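Side project, low priority. Logging it here so it doesn't get lost.
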Amino acid sequence: MLAGCQDTTAPDPAACLEISLPAEKVRIADEVQITVATRCRGLQSGAPAWSSSDTLVAAVSPAGVLEARSAGSTTVSARIGEHAAQLPVTVVGRYRVVALGDSLSPAAINERGEVVGTLKFIWAFLWRGGTVVSLGLREADAYDINDAGVVVGRTTVRTVTGTPSYSVERITENLFRWQEGSPAQLREVSAGGVRIVSAAVNGRGEAPFSMNPLYCGRFCTYDGYGLQADTMKSVSRVKVTDVNEQGTVVGLKELGPGYGYYFEESGAVAYSGGAETILPGITSGRYAYSAALGINDRGEVVGYSGSGERVPVRWTAQRTLERLPLPAGFQSGQADRINNRGEIVGSATPRYAYDEGRIGLLWQNGRLFRLDHLTGSEEWTITSPRDINDRGQIVAMATHRPSGVKQGVLLDPQ
């Protein structure tokens, strides 16, 4: 009778444990579950002990969730008893920074990634895939664009009449509607003395706008137009900021009392179906200021509220007010836009009413991020986000650190 042979060679501890990620690279701010696989019988059960060789790049929670913190490389290790496994991890920027060009100030982006704004302070432009298209309108600002490519904004039209020895220049303020392949449609709204300061457009082509006096110093009284879908009725002391696909218009309303162009209180306001709703603020009464700056198709609204420093806020579809956090060391801020995924962009400053030190922010899934920290690049400081679409693309103003030049950028998710 022959005795059976048995392999008594101990398994390599490194071969008994394996860890992996769904992708070779992870993006800054991603939180990814690491998969653990055991290859040897008799491997003791229990949760692995985790570590990272560079926790500034990425850290691992006790549950094995990797948190990507900054661009770079690190090695993640897992250990169960004497068995260990390692995994090299590369963290890349969450966004690729695309410079739109010198002297381009973006205002809005649609779902096709088309950007509109103002070029060299006097030309309305459309940016598409690296190409800048002039709308052919001088002394013009493009404020918004819908997914059909309809652009709305303002333009000044100057008409000279008379003879060579005596001529008269007539200056009019016009709301324009532009779509590629057709001449811009102009609608004269004033023969002088006022200026269109904001306009928005949704997929139904509804384009509310607001105006204020051309020369009014620091404080201006607004008038809003097109706040109801079926009319262009004027609502005094209202500044329009955004409109969603259901036709709900949001903005700010001067609640008074006012003295000349100065007003002591403003409220965030929404118009839907002809009804006006003043949204709740953090404070109320004299010197309380709130503004609704953006709305998504779910009816969620973002803006700011406060009586001194501005506090970024979100109003739910049920109009419940929620404060949004600010980074340490920043006392004032605002939330500018919200997309249909609930992602919010805005900015913060160390002190109220000062642009110096302004930084761009992203609020996402209950977490707060500095936008320039998400790029993985040391070249850019993102200062003022202007819009975000449902693909997560963001347009913003930024400072190119090596040159000190301020220009518009597109943050394109990688």
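Brief comment: The two ends are 67 Å apart (CA to CA).
Revisit when time allows.
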